[in-house]
Amino acid sequence: MNIFHPLKTFGPVDSKYIRRDDITIMLLAAPFLLGMVSRWLLPFLFEGIGSLIGLNIQPYLSPIMGYALIFLMPLFSGMIIGLILLDQMDDRSILGLQVSPIPMRSYIAYRLFTPMLFSFLTTLIVYPLSGLQSIGVGSLLACAALAMPFAPMIALTFATFAENKIQGLVLMKASGGILFLPIVSYFIPSLWKFAFAFIPTYWPAQFFWWSLDPNPWRWLIWGVGMIIEISIVQFLLHRWLKKIYA
């Protein structure tokens, strides 16, 4: 089967869904808006706050906002796909795929890899747009690659653990707070940072921070993080398939 067949079939449907939903449009636009804010507004804001408290906080701009920008695109694209999956589960149209000409595995591949590719490419655009400290092309590519599995991870979390779109929106709020928790580890010295290793976003975050101030151990972090993320995606996919075939 032509690998572009699922894209031709489902792409227009997804596009129509996104255009009619204000939440999804907001999720798509937010990273680009935040990138521009990081470039033109936040440096002045950080400088003003630093003057008020008598402390130079400018060095924290790139670590904090860079982390946010790298995760926003996979986070938001995963949320969009998760909401689409919930809609299709609600109207039971996803069950119709079992008798459609397109194999279920092609649909799953489309659902998992499209948001990953989208988040990867947009991260490569938004981070340079932000004007934050450069980490080099190679490290930026690696950061975008290490973060992109969070798109299907978020989508499958919604589809697996939420029963409807309302519960999905609740999960959206909760997941955002949990995924950004590793920012705390940036301010913790030495090996205590690894106390946050149970949070999947810790690994891309640490790789990014060690790319700002190049540390050769960051590539070990990259490898371990990728293994963990792929394992979580496989686990969630297995749970979701059990749910829809139950």
Provide a descriptive summary of the structure in words.
Helix 2 (22-40) packs parallel to helix 5 (104-130) and helix 9 (202-212) packs antiparallel against helix 10 (218-245). The protein has one domain. The model has no long low-confidence stretch (mean pLDDT 84). The chain has ten helices and no strands. The protein has helices at 5-20, 22-40, 42-53, 61-90, 104-130, 137-147, 150-161, 165-179, 202-212, 218-245. It is globular, with a radius of gyration of 19 Å. The protein has 246 residues and is mainly α.
Largest sheet: none
Percent of residues in β-strands: under 5%
**Tally of contiguous helical segments:** 10
Helical residue percent? Answer: over 70%
Gyration radius, in Å: 19 Å
Helical/strand content category: mainly alpha
Question: How far apart are the termini?
Answer: 28 Å
Poorly predicted sequence stretches spanning 5 or more consecutive residues: none
How much is the average pLDDT?
Answer: 84
**What is the N-to-C succession of helices and strands?**
HHHHHHHHHH
Number of domains: 1
Principal-axes geometry comes out as globular
Structure summary, number of beta strands: 0
Brief write-up:
The chain has about 250 residues and is mostly helical.
SSE layout:
Elements: H1 5-20, H2 22-40, H3 42-53, H4 61-90, H5 104-130, H6 137-147, H7 150-161, H8 165-179, H9 202-212, H10 218-245
Helix pairs in contact: 2-4, 2-5, 4-5, 4-7, 4-8, 4-9, 5-6, 5-7, 6-9, 7-8, 7-10, 9-10
